[in-house]
């Protein structure tokens, strides 16, 4: 299995497929990179001036390569046929029905991509699983491919999980802590690993490209996300102790994080982690443990999710209690709707859940986010799992063009996302527009609380008594 690569294809033009292939195209001018997707709308957006996702520096990378060695297309079959190596970057959401509902990963998109490859491939391919999957998914892909193989065609399936975080995707892709490649421990397997490694070696130091067996690689991705989510749930659990005792969670995080064995990153207490992956991947592992008859291990990781949900509820309950135990018909301003700053992505955003609790109490919610479009917010808040009264959402929710309008005649300001611009707002101007007493609930420990109290605000934050 000796292969020199000239054309590669990526199935799935999402948050991972788009940025990672744009960076590959930029760093490997000798490769032609085609990203394909079922969604014509998404592909049109990738080919337009307004890309389907917002990521700092993504525009410049795409513009530098698009039409030269980077192409976005709906012609999936042609993409597959021409490529020597194919990334599978499709979504792997949590199942919403059937066995493992609410926990197991739904692998139908992975399977259909694999079946498509088997159907149209006319020569041998390296198939690279980049989506996050349960352990042994590569084996399923391999089984589907070999059950449908055409004469003269061979496949090697590799695991190459992606570790980028949204909002910093391009920086993460350009300077990854490590690239992980899992393959079969055979001669052909290691040739395929070498071919994929060659792509990354265009810009990643060789010592940062780690190779291992396929199952370790698949599990390492779930493990990394579980450890990261666990750190947030651990500091958020501390924040509850801080609020009850008068300790300050930022100080505790600093003290703990200066231990070089623990390290300072990912210890910021918050209203809870969001994003498309932490919850999904931890639940995926919980389900895996249950299937492997490891109930104690499953329960251990389930707690990471439970604390996250508790944190969102706890934060919103404090809002209601502070506002004299009733928020019905009160106006409440929510600043930030994305699950973190520098992205327009709202998947599993804590803001959705905070708004849900506020709406359940009959509050009027005035929302401002610098990047999330109005329709996205409205559709998130009318999802079946968020409300059983979707018709009330347009009546109770107003999307505002800036923070000042969102604060108009409001009783409380709630910070849900740590956007930089919220630190430089004119809070005196905001205070003047609000009803008194004017409250601020800082769900991100983002603002200068003393300055706000000097203006006259009543301030509440996570993990700290003020
Ligand atoms: P996404 O929903 O943004 O994109 C997936 C795309 O795949 C969609 O555009 C969809 O139309 C397309 N698709 C699905 N089935 C297809 C098929 N059979 N043929 C062609 N196209 C198909 O998802 P994402 O956020 O890019 O995540 C993809 C995977 O990467 C997931 O497994 C996720 O867990 C993992 N991951 C995501 C991130 C992240 O930050 N979003 C980071 C690391 C890993
Ligand atoms: C996360 C991981 O960081 C990536 O390595 C991984 O590739 C990705 O999941 C994935 O598999 O999808 P992402 O979800 O994009 O990336 O963003 P993070 O920066 O990890 O933030 C996740 C959530 O945790 C956000 O809501 C963020 O606000 C919150 N967070 C993060 C905290 O509350 N405190 C922190 O200290 C850090």
From TrEMBL:
Pfam families: UDPG_MGDP_dh, UDPG_MGDP_dh_C, UDPG_MGDP_dh_N. It catalyses: UDP-alpha-D-glucose + 2 NAD(+) + H2O = UDP-alpha-D-glucuronate + 2 NADH + 3 H(+). Its EC number is 1.1.1.22. The keyword Transferase does not apply. Keywords: NAD, Oxidoreductase. Pathway: Nucleotide-sugar biosynthesis; UDP-alpha-D-glucuronate biosynthesis; UDP-alpha-D-glucuronate from UDP-alpha-D-glucose: step 1/1. Residues 333-449 form the UDP-glucose/GDP-mannose dehydrogenase C-terminal domain. PANTHER family: UDP-GLUCOSE 6-DEHYDROGENASE (PTHR11374:SF3), UDP-GLUCOSE DEHYDROGENASE/UDP-MANNAC DEHYDROGENASE (PTHR11374). Belongs to the UDP-glucose/GDP-mannose dehydrogenase family. Involved in the biosynthesis of glycosaminoglycans; hyaluronan, chondroitin sulfate, and heparan sulfate. This is UDP-glucose 6-dehydrogenase. The gene is LOC101862629.
């Amino acid at each position: 299995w000796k292969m020199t690569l000239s054309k590669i294809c990526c199935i799935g033009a999402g948050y991972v497929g788009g940025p990672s292939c744009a960076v590959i195209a930029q760093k490997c001018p000798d490769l032609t990179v085609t990203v394909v997707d079922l969604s014509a709308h998404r592909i049109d957006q990738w080919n337009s001036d307004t890309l389907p996702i917002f990521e700092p520096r993504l525009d410049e990378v795409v513009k530098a390569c698009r039409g030269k060695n980077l192409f976005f297309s709906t012609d999936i079959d042609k993409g597959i046929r021409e490529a020597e190596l194919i990334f599978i970057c499709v979504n792997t959401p949590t199942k919403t029905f059937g066995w493992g509902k609410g926990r197991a990963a739904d692998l139908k998109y992975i399977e259909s991509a694999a079946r498509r490859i088997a159907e149209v491939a006319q020569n041998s391919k390296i198939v690279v699983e980049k989506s996050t999957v349960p352990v042994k998914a590569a084996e399923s892909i391999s089984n589907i491919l070999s059950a449908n193989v055409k004469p003269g065609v061979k496949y090697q399936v590799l695991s190459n999980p992606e570790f980028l975080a949204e909002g910093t995707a391009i920086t993460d892709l350009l300077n990854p802590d490590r690239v992980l490649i899992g393959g079969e421990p055979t001669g052909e397997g290691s040739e395929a690993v070498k071919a994929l490694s060659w792509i990354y070696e265009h810009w990643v130091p060789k010592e940062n490209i780690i190779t291992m067996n396929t199952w370790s690689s698949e599990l390492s991705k779930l493990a990394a996300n579980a450890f990261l989510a666990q750190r947030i749930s651990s500091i958020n659990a501390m924040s509850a102790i801080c609020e009850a005792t008068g300790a300050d969670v930022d100080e505790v995080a600093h003290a703990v994080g200066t231990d070089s064995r623990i390290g300072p990153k990912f210890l910021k207490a918050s209203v809870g982690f969001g994003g498309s992956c932490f919850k999904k991947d931890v639940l995926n592992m919980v389900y895996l443990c249950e299937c492997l008859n490891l109930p104690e291990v499953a329960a251990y990781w389930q707690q990471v999710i439970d604390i996250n949900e508790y944190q969102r509820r706890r934060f919103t309950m404090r809002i209601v209690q502070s506002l004299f135990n009733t928020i019905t018909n009160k106006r409440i301003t929510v600043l930030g709707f994305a699950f973190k700053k520098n992205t327009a992505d709202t998947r599993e955003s804590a803001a959705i859940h905070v708004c849900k609790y506020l709406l359940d109490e009959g509050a009027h919610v005035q929302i401002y986010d610098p990047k999330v479009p109005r329709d996205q917010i409205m559709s998130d808040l009318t999802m079946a799992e968020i409300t059983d009264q979707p018709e009330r959402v347009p009546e109770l929710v107003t999307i505002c063009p800036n923070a000042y309008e969102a604060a108009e005649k409001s009783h409380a300001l709630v910070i849900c996302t740590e956007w930089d611009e919220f630190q430089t707002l004119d809070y005196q101007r905001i205070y003047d527009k609000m009803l008194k007493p004017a409250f601020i609930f800082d769900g991100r420990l983002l603002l200068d609380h003393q300055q706000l109290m000097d203006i006259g605000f009543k301030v509440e934050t996570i993990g700290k008594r003020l």
